[in-house]
Amino acid sequence: MEKYTELVTKNPYVLQLIMVVVGVIFILTVKNLIRSRLIRHIKDNNNSYRSKKAINAVGYFLILLLISIIYRESLGTLAVFFGIVGAGIAFALQEVIVSIAGWISILLTDIYKTGDRVMLGGIKGDVIDVGVLRTTIMEIGGWVEADLYNGRIVRIANSFVFKEPVYNYSADFPFLWDEIKVPIQYGSNYTLARKIIFDVGQEVVGEYSVEAEKQWEIMLKKFMIENASTHPTVTIIANDNWVEFSLRYVVDYKKRVGVKDQLFTKILEQVEASSNQVELASTTIALTKIPPLEMKL
Q1: For a designed S-S bond to 185, which of 86, 178, 264, 279 qualifies (C-beta 3.0 to 4.6 A apart)?
Q2: 175-272 maps to which CATH number?
Q3: Is residue 19 within 8 Å of residue 70, measured between CB atoms?
């Protein structure tokens, strides 16, 4: 026992190592204790996730600070060496450094957060994790039509937030404007057709209009943007084949597919119940001139 005590007292490197090990164990224990106690009182998933990330970051920072304090004398002699090596490392790992800067920017700003639906680096999906170097996205679309998950999990470097536009579907205004087009035959009752489409839109998405209007008023106070109607509107154009009615409406960004299904289902039911006053159209081909036929027997 005396030999070990003498070795520790006479060799400062052994003492520093022991101090580092004890300090790291203490910091990790306190970090895990604080995180477990704090998470119990946070009900919101997003706030819970951010709190975990923040506590981990503080813990790692304290560990680095402890090591730098214990080895402060050695660090002074190695400053020049680390400066030269650091320049080379910074050049070789510039993408990693930019990704870390992107991670800090994501955490400190409202670019996006976990749970948001975004399009980043050409990939559209829901953000399920924001790491130090990469953002993890559950992809939607691809070979699957509409806004449905396709099962792929994509990890995108955080550096993309500085290189490409970030499309956020749910940041300040959690609604989207969407539309459906209904082709109606020429000769139908256009007034009735407009009424059917508008009434169905009001019935299905009317509740979104009220909530979206409140959210849009907040947007007007926060940004320099013109006012816009959040209520369903029906417009009409005529082309070579039919009269096209467009229903434009506001919908929750996660419910586009279900809402479209409800709209088309109810519109088709109302059209069929209109006693042929309104009829759906299909592509027609008109032959204006028949070429001469010559038959030889």
Answers
A1: 279
A2: 3.30.70.100
A3: yes
End-to-end CA distance of the chain: 121
CA-wise closest residue to 216 among 205, 231, 201: 231
CA–CA dist 28, 21 (Å, integer): 11
| 214-244 pLDDT, tens digit each | 888 888 877 777 778 888 899 999 988 899 9
- Please count the residues of the chain: 297
- Would you call 273 exposed, middle or buried from its count of C-beta atoms within 10 A (0-12, 13-18, 19+)? exposed
Read off the tokens for 31: 């970090």
Give the strands of the sheet with 243-252, arranged side by side. 175-184, 243-252, 233-238
Give the type of residue at 9: T
CB atoms within 10 A of CB 47: 11
Q: In what order do the strands lie in the sheet with 117-120?
A: 149-157, 134-140, 123-130, 117-120, 167-168
Across 86-101, average pLDDT: 70
For 104-168, CATH gives 2.30.30.60
Bridge-based pairing state of the strands 243-252 and 175-184: antiparallel
Q: Report the alpha-carbon distance of residue 284 to residue 243 in Å, rounded.
A: 13
d(CA 68, CA 81): 16
CATH 2.30.30.60 placement within the chain? 104-168
Which residue type occupies 201?
A: G
Q: State the Cα–Cα distance between residues 24 and 18, nearest whole angstrom.
A: 10
Give me the chain's average pLDDT, please. Answer: 80
The string of pLDDT tens digits covering residues 238-281 is 988 899 999 999 888 888 888 999 999 999 999 998 888 988 88
Dist. CA 51–CA 60, nearest whole Å: 14
